[in-house]
Design goal:
single chain; 272 residues; two-stranded antiparallel ribbon; alpha/beta; ten-stranded mixed sheet; globular
């Protein structure tokens, strides 16, 4: 039986003034568009509101918590999660609407077409990037995971045929911004999990194995220089995560060491 289409587009954004407009334009077919603004300091809010989106200011370290906040605000029977650097094509929009109206499935999975440095990646593991993004609201109960978050839902999952376009790592600087945002969160999770003491060997091993996995095992080399560069970046990101784990493992903590040094200098002046 055909069902009435009612869908909310849910977007998590922080300092996405460059990307948010085209993201919103790709979901204007939805009944409502909700942007959870995670402490932006640029024009993200103003741009989103000018295009008719409802903008909610909500800052949190957990991506799962941000997605849950968006879900709480949605008024439609269905929700579509989309990130600011992702785009829904007309073909995908049509497929989503048709599947919602004609299928009994309550959760739909979509494959992302990852664009790195202007190139569509076909290897390196990026070709297997499937994500659950369309839900009947009553079927999804929340999200778990601080960085690589996953949805909690009930019911069967169906795969959509059309890909979701993902503009990621557009250049080195934008990639560094992403690294700065998510690596501290992952490092804290690993530290809480009690990973072994990080050594220089740990850093070399983690970085090399991530590069090898992406470039060789998952055949990232087939994407040419862009694929190899991305494999190097992923290796560097692993090293950065574990350097931050090493920082957290220091006793006394690094911040305590600075406090002690400041006190030492202050006492020098007091003794003059």
């Amino acid at each position: 039986m055909s069902k009435q289409l009612s869908i909310s587009a849910l977007i998590i954004a922080k300092n996405e003034a460059e990307m948010i407009a085209n993201c919103i334009k790709s979901v204007l077919w939805c009944n409502e568009i909700i942007v959870i603004d995670d402490g932006s300091t640029d024009e993200t809010r103003e741009i989103a509101e000018s295009l008719g989106a409802i903008v909610i200011s909500f800052k949190h370290d957990s991506f799962s918590r941000l997605r849950e906040e968006a879900l709480k605000r949605a008024k439609s029977a269905w929700v579509l999660y989309i990130d600011a650097d992702e785009r829904v094509t007309p073909t995908l929009a049509k497929e989503i609407k048709v599947m919602i109206e004609t299928s009994d499935t309550k959760v739909f999975r979509v494959q992302r077409e990852n664009i790195y440095f202007g190139k569509r990646f076909k290897a390196g593991g990026w070709q297997d990037d499937w994500v659950e993004r369309v839900f009947e609201k009553n079927a999804i109960t929340g999200w778990f995971g601080q960085v690589h978050e996953s949805p909690k839902y009930s019911g069967e999952v169906a795969d959509l045929q059309t890909k979701l376009v993902h503009f990621t790592h557009r250049d080195t600087v934008s990639g560094l911004h992403k690294t700065a945002a998510w690596t501290p969160i992952e490092a804290k999770e690993l530290f809480k999990a009690g990973v072994p003491k990080v050594t220089l060997l740990t850093l070399f091993r983690k970085g090399f194995m991530e590069f090898f996995r992406r470039a060789v095992l998952k055949q990232g080399y087939k994407d040419g220089m862009a694929g190899l560069v991305e494999a190097v970046i992923q290796g560097i990101n692993r090293v950065i995560v574990y350097i931050q784990v090493w920082e957290l493992q220091q006793k006394p903590s690094i911040s305590e060491k600075y406090v002690a040094k400041e006190a030492e200098i202050e006492n020098m002046w007091k003794s003059q």
